[in-house]
Design a protein that fits this description.
Length: 458
């Protein structure tokens, strides 16, 4: 079956045609100055789904998610506070590369743990920016020699006028950038949108022929993508906020360096709001996977909730919505658990269920067809379970494993649940809450229904 993807570069939903036998994908990764909140993680659920679709269709894949463990200012431009430096100050660390690397390693491990928790297959490469400065320097030197980069007192900047196609991703107009430019942080720039490929810092950073300092954030992605995927590769993804600046900058510098097309397909996921508000630490509304788990929800219920919205749509998170998603997810797990030795069945899955995913990853439509299938009285439970598990080969909701675990609830957990039920009958709410927490800490969740308690895995 053909795969179609909405390509930000063309503005169309294009049929996917791989450049070679292996589908090569680069996904803008996290800046590891803190834990990733649930909005950040949407990008990697999306990236994981994309990879599973290609592999389901029979393609080999090569996937890269970069780790930014130094640099990266608070905006995609060259102004604002440096995130990794901010982390050093927050955690009382010395202002050294060693301390920055230590913080980066801690939050990288946390990010990888989140990927495992969401049942996202780890990429083939997770390169760290701090370990690819040599590659950055090689590109900067080439761009400097070719005259598209020029020096100022605070760094080396890419001259966007040297690249006539600047802004082609998302159809960004250069004239609008001129008219809407803010007060310049560097008045020596030739154009307000010129961007740094190297920032000078005499005290902190790496030595280079043009001066000690740091590679620009954009150059890091170009260097790592080219090293692991080649000068031209199939797919580049990221959040929609990367389109105007970061991704256009990547294209301009990469194609000026290689004289080749950088990436063929550009895909972008939309944001998540929480109770209709933008996620912001200043609003104290940032939510993490650990918060979801602490409230007794399975992290895979959150992944299911993400699939109820198209990746290009703005999704509004509420705890009520997650509750609904959690119940829906548990129904799927219970169905599979009720069928001994259930296995994926390619012949059981209908085109109606799977075709929407092939059409630009339309998971909401696919889920709607899935629920219609589960309501079909002409199908046996075995057929339903087989079709569901076949679909899950793409969705990665880990239903089979969760079903296996739910059918093997330990006696110790059942005893805790019985004690909790007794406490509830006696209206001993504190003991009931304490027992619920003990059950949750052991990796299970207990729900109260009209027919009594239900125990399942988190």
């Amino acid at each position: 079956m053909d795969i179609y993807l909405h390509n930000t570069l063309s503005g169309n939903t294009d049929k996917f045609v791989p450049l070679e036998k292996v589908v090569r994908m680069y996904h803008c990764g996290p800046t590891v100055y803190n834990y990733a909140h649930i909005g950040n993680l949407r990008s990697y659920v999306f990236a994981g789904l994309l990879r599973k679709l290609f592999e389901y269709e029979g393609y080999e894949t090569k996937q890269v998610i970069n780790i930014t463990d130094f640099g990266h200012l608070t905006s995609d431009g060259d102004e604002g506070e440096d995130k990794m430096t901010k982390a050093l100050i927050r955690e009382g660390k010395p202002m050294t590369l060693e301390a920055m690397k230590e913080i980066g390693e801690f939050y990288t491990k946390a990010f990888i743990h989140d990927l495992h928790t969401l049942n996202i297959t780890l990429p083939h490469h997770l390169p760290k920016a701090s370990e690819h400065v040599t590659e950055d320097k090689a590109i900067v030197q080439n761009l400097l020699d070719s005259g598209v980069v020029y020096p100022t007192s605070d760094g080396l900047y890419f001259n966007i006028d040297s690249y006539p196609q600047y802004g082609k991703l998302g159809n960004i107009k250069i004239d609008a950038l001129k008219e809407g430019a803010r007060v310049e942080s560097n008045p020596e720039k030739k154009h307000p949108a010129d961007f740094a490929v190297w920032k000078f810092n005499k005290e902190f950073g790496w030595d280079a022929p043009w001066g000690k300092g740091f590679p620009g954030w954009h150059i890091e992605c170009s260097a790592m993508a080219i090293k692991y995927l080649g000068e031209t590769f199939d797919i580049h993804t990221g959040g929609i906020d990367h389109i105007p600046v970061h991704h256009n900058n990547e294209i301009a510098q990469s194609e000026s360096y290689t004289r080749k097309e950088f990436a063929k397909y550009w895909l972008h996921n939309n944001f998540i709001t929480i109770d209709s508000q933008k996620i912001s630490k200043s609003l104290s509304n940032d939510i993490y996977l650990k918060d979801i788990i602490a409230k007794g929800y399975s992290p895979l219920a959150y992944k299911y909730w993400l699939y109820t919205s198209h990746y290009e749509s703005l999704a509004n998170f509420t705890w009520e919505a997650l509750t609904g998603a959690a119940e829906a997810y548990r129904k799927l797990v219970r169905l599979v658990a009720s069928v001994p030795h259930a296995t994926p069945e390619r012949s059981a899955i209908s085109d109606a269920m799977i075709a929407p995913i092939y059409m630009n990853l339309n998971t909401p439509e696919s889920l709607a067809h899935m629920w219609n299938m589960l309501k079909d009285d002409t199908l046996t439970q075995e057929q339903k379970a087989g079709a569901l598990l076949e679909l899950d080969r793409i969705l990665g909701l880990n239903i089979a494993e969760e079903a296996r675990k739910s059918s093997e609830i330990p006696d110790a957990i059942k005893e805790l649940a019985e004690k909790r039920e007794e406490a509830r009958k006696n209206k001993d709410w504190k003991s009931s809450d304490d027992l619920r927490k003990a059950i949750q800490d052991a990796g299970y969740v207990v729900e109260d229904g009209e027919h009594g308690q239900k125990i399942s895995t988190l």
